[in-house]
Specification:
Length: about 260
């Protein structure tokens, strides 16, 4: 049986350096736990929110959405049946666009092109991350080319488009397909569709593609491509997803 400790041994103080080391160790553990429970989660959520925005300029504006919507733009002033209205910001433009008569007057104004991305910002600001994807990012251009119904493009279709079941069926002299871009050319005219966002705006499960259409290098407008039940893509105007009814329209459109 080991001898009992003597009184001097029991009263011996705990070394000071051990107290300091233990305190520092606990402090390090606390800092690591605090950073681990806050920073990664916040950064991950922010990264996920903008992961589907493929256009750098739009991504920057969405990261500063309030400032972008309030930023001063060329003054637009329109006369409508119910009065005279003017605006010099995206926020004002979108507020006035909620009324059919005012929207028509605004969109036909010579300076309307300066506000063309306002509706895109509004739609993408409330967009969600999709549950399923049409393809990899590298295959979006090919997916649009082979699945899009050109009839749904209406006024934004290529000027030389003839009746075809898919964009791939349109007679073109030259076709160029990139990761997220389709370029068609006929004669001296070119038509381009570029995917600028892969998001969910019409409802799950499959992603919707927000695209920008250009003619001869000049932006002509934006559309949302939604999936039909037969796997084809149907183009819808941005207004559908701002005013409401986008899901219903997407589901009701026949294949």
């Amino acid at each position: 049986m080991p001898p009992s400790p003597s009184l001097p041994e029991m009263d011996r103080p705990f070394p000071l350096y051990r107290v300091i080391i233990t305190g520092l160790f606990l402090l390090v553990l606390f800092v690591i736990a605090t950073l681990g429970s806050t920073a990664p989660a916040s950064e991950g959520a922010e990264e996920s929110k903008f992961s589907g925005i493929l256009d750098p300029d739009l991504r920057n504006k969405l990261e500063h959405y309030t400032q972008a919507m309030a930023a001063t733009r060329p003054l637009i002033e329109v006369e409508t049946a119910d009065g005279r209205y003017k605006t010099d910001s995206c926020a004002g433009f979108m507020a006035l666009s909620g009324h059919d008569g005012r929207a028509r007057a605004l969109n036909s104004h010579p300076l309307a092109s300066a506000y063309r991305d306002c509706a895109v910002l509004r739609v993408l600001h409330t967009a969600r991350e999709p549950e399923q994807h049409l393809s990899t990012l590298a295959g979006l251009g090919q997916a649009v080319f082979t699945r899009l119904d050109p009839a749904s493009l209406q006024s934004l279709a290529p000027a030389w488009a003839v009746k075809a079941a898919r964009l791939a069926g349109i007679g073109s002299d030259h076709v160029e397909i990139g990761d997220r871009r389709v370029i068609l050319a006929r004669g001296q005219s070119t038509w381009t569709m570029e995917v600028i966002a892969s998001v969910d705006v019409a409802g799950p499960p499959v992603e919707d593609l927000v695209v920008r259409v250009s003619r001869d290098g000049v932006a002509a407008g934006f559309l949302v491509l939604v999936s039909r039940t037969d796997g084809s893509l149907n183009a819808l105007p941005l207004d559908v997803f701002i005013m409401g009814g986008g899901v219903a329209m997407a589901q009701a459109t026949p294949p």
